[in-house]
Every structure is written in structure tokens, then in C-alpha cells.
Backbone:
């Protein structure tokens, strides 16, 4: 992340500390203390700029055990301590991915207990009657032509919403970074669904709002933050990750950002405006009543497709 010359330079902000991080898109060279400080300040500014959280919210932080979600929990825990009327808890979902999820769940349990944060757990098995491993090994799944991630993503979103609502949350905070948000806008554009919703911004309506306080924070800074403040996180990659459509978009955007620093911020700006203008009025799934852009929501479509015959 640093050249040998940068490593002996001093911080642009305080002028004293040894440089440990170079923000290429802004030109800032930061010492450890100023990196952490500016990182946390940006999260607070993002929350204020988009009105993501309110003073009296009961916030459910969706945690998976990865670097992004545990870093988000760490930062929001710090912020929450300054807002006495706000409450915060963590919610985690066991998708039932053999040989992968157990380590992540153990890390989530240990870290929430270290921070003194209540943890609410749920699972695909409990809510949908099948684990992800059971779904992907079924004949109906193989015949459906779906990828594991196309099933897992919507079911996990729904599971988090259900668990958060049951625990009395007024909002769900997810750890989607700038990279994730731009990837999602791009995927929506490629599917012709760009105008249907804003990603990670607070919306009014019957569904529990989902907000992304890291939407202005690049993923590589979240990784660096997690290492810098000593957050233990799962490094093993999900065995189904290579089947994700998102992977191709991620690869393209990461390469583009490396060649042209600042492109992700520029893309977000372009995507945000049309999406905010084009937002359609809400529709509701005819089966479960959840907010959706189609007649049947994605989760109900999936459950119908993979249901054992
Ligand atoms: Fe689920 Fe795919 Fe993520 Fe694995 S990589 S946890 S299957 S969405």
C-alpha cells in the first residue's frame, strides 16, 4: 500500500506521525492515528449527509463475521456511545453453508460479547425450512438454473429483516462499502432495473429501512481499518463465491479504480441522481406482502423454484 519513500514521510494531517496509508484518490498520506480518525469521521458524516440514522433509532447491525460487518459494528458502537437515546444490537444469519459458516459465527459471538453488544441469531433452516447446503444439493435447485449466490443473497436479506423486526429494530445497518454500492447499481443497470430503488439509503414505507453507513468508504480502507484497530475477522472465502454474477462486475470495477483512482466516487454520484429521481412508487409482493418491484418478490420466486416436489 506504501512505497518505501512514503513510509518515511510524515502525515499530511498532523504533520508528525509516520505515514501508514496513502489515499491515492485524494492524495492524503496518513499516520495510523489520523487514518483511524478520518475513517470514523467519514462514517459519521455519511450518516449525517444522507440522514441514515436518527437519534432514537434501535439499530440492528447485520454482521456476517467478515471484515466489513465487524468493522461497521465497531464504528457504530463508538458512535452510539455519544447518542444516549439510540440503541444498537447485532443480527446474524446462519445460511447453513457447510465447512464455512461455523468459524464466522464463532467470531461474531466472540466480538459482540467483547463489545458488550446483544446478538440476535437466526438461520435459513429456522425461517425457510432448508439450509443453503440443502437447497443447492436438491434436484429442484439444479433444475432451476439458479446460482447459489442468487438464492443466498435475497434469502439472507429477508432473514435479517425478519430477525431485526422481531427484535424491535427501527432500521437495519449493513456493511456495504462504496465498492459494493456501485457494484449493485451497476448490476441493476445491467438488468434494466436501475430506476427502482436507492441502494443503502433510508426510505419511508412499511418495510424496515436498510442503510449503508460505509457507502462513501472504499473497501480497501475498511480492510486497513480492521487490521489497524485489531478486529479479528474471517478470511476464508465462501465456497460458492465464484458462482456470483457480482464477481465479474467487481473485477471490472476494481481494475478500473486501480487505473483511474476516484472512479468509484464518480460512478456513485452518477448513479445516485437518476436513481433518486426515477424512484417508482412502491409495490407489494402478492404472496408475502413485502416491498418489491415485481408482482412476486425475489424471495417468494426463489422459494417456489427450489421447493422440493
Ligand atoms: Fe451466500 Fe454467495 Fe455470499 Fe456465499 S458468496 S455467503 S453463497 S451470497
Residues:
Amino acid at each position: 500500500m506504501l512505497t518505501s519513500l512514503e513510509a518515511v514521510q510524515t502525515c499530511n494531517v498532523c504533520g508528525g506521525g509516520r505515514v501508514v496509508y496513502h489515499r491515492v484518490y485524494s492524495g492524503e498520506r496518513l499516520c495510523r492515528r489520523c487514518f483511524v480518525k478520518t475513517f470514523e469521521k467519514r462514517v459519521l458524516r455519511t450518516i449525517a449527509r444522507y440522514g441514515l440514522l436518527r437519534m432514537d433509532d434501535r439499530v440492528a447491525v447485520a454482521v456476517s463475521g467478515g471484515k466489513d460487518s465487524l468493522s461497521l459494528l465497531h464504528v457504530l458502537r463508538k458512535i452510539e456511545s455519544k447518542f444516549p437515546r439510540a440503541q444498537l444490537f447485532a443480527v446474524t444469519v446462519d445460511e447453513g453453508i457447510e465447512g464455512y459458516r461455523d468459524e464466522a459465527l464463532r467470531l461474531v459471538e466472540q466480538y459482540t460479547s467483547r463489545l458488550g453488544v446483544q446478538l440476535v441469531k437466526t438461520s435459513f433452516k429456522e425461517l425457510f425450512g432448508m439450509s443453503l447446503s440443502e437447497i443447492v444439493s436438491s434436484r429442484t435447485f439444479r433444475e432451476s438454473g439458479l446460482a447459489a449466490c442468487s438464492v443466498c443473497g435475497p434469502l439472507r436479506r429477508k432473514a435479517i429483516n425478519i430477525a431485526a423486526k422481531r427484535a424491535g429494530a427501527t432500521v437495519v445497518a449493513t456493511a456495504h462499502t462504496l465498492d459494493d454500492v456501485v457494484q449493485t447499481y451497476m448490476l441493476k443497470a445491467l438488468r434494466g432495473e436501475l430506476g427502482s430503488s436507492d441502494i443503502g439509503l433510508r426510505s419511508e414505507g412499511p418495510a424496515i429501512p436498510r442503510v449503508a453507513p460505509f457507502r462513501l468508504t472504499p473497501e480497501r480502507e475498511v480492510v486497513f481499518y480492521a487490521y489497524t484497530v485489531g478486529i479479528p475477522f474471517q478470511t476464508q472465502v465462501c465456497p460458492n463465491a465464484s458462482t456470483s454474477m457480482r464477481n465479474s462486475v467487481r473485477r471490472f470495477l476494481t481494475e478500473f479504480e486501480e487505473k483511474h483512482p476516484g472512479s468509484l466516487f464518480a460512478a456513485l454520484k452518477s448513479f445516485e441522481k437518476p436513481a433518486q429521481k426515477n424512484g417508482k412508487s412502491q409495490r407489494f409482493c402478492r404472496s408475502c406482502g413485502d416491498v418489491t418491484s415485481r408482482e412476486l418478490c425475489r424471495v417468494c420466486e426463489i422459494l417456489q423454484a427450489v421447493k422440493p416436489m
